[in-house]
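Reading is simple: the token line describes the chain's fold. The lines below illustrate.

. . .
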Amino acid sequence: MAAKIMIVEDDPDICEVLSYNMEQEGYDVQIFHNGQKAIDALFKSPPDLVLLDLMLPGLNGLEFTRIVRRDNIIGNLPVIMLTARSEEMDILQGLETGADDYITKPFRPKEVIARVRALLRRHHRDDDKVFSFNGLSVNFSKHQVSADGQLLDLTPKEFLLLKALIDAKGRVLSRDQLLDIVWGFDYYGDPRTVDVHVRRLRQKLGDWANVVETVKGFGYRIKIEE
């Protein structure tokens, strides 16, 4: 089945160039000129990847990406930003908001296609990833955690907390970093929210609770060594 690419761009000429080249490569293309209409359609039928302009009517590219990244179901949807803004701070802001890649205009269609192809390959590899340790198994694509073969009933936030720590590969993540990853960049709640969710996560992990280690004064990390 052809991968579905959503193009969110308010310039009709750019849309025409992108859609023509994407369709020539066998992709199924959807085009939206308004950010809000695109996000509404995305939640009804998620694409495989989004090519996203930064400056859009209705909902700009940064707001669009924040909404996607906060969602527990489509939060890892691949997003490539396409924009005329090439200042370093604009690029950093786009990537920090959650874009997977960033291409400035004018661009070569073949370069965009190559980036799309590479990101889709990487995304499919991540979907197949399973973390296992001493009977504890985390399936990232299915959002499932099991201990000795028994599924654990984690909430979406508890799962995302565990995933964030696993993805950090032993690095310490502060409470603020975990708030950004799990709750979103524009969440302004109490950092102790993280502590409450970690405590509940540990309770559900039972004998595996010690894989989530507290680093006093800094935050949390995953601990898988004996």
Summary: The chain has a mean pLDDT of 86. The CA atoms of residues 3 and 102 lie 20 Å apart.
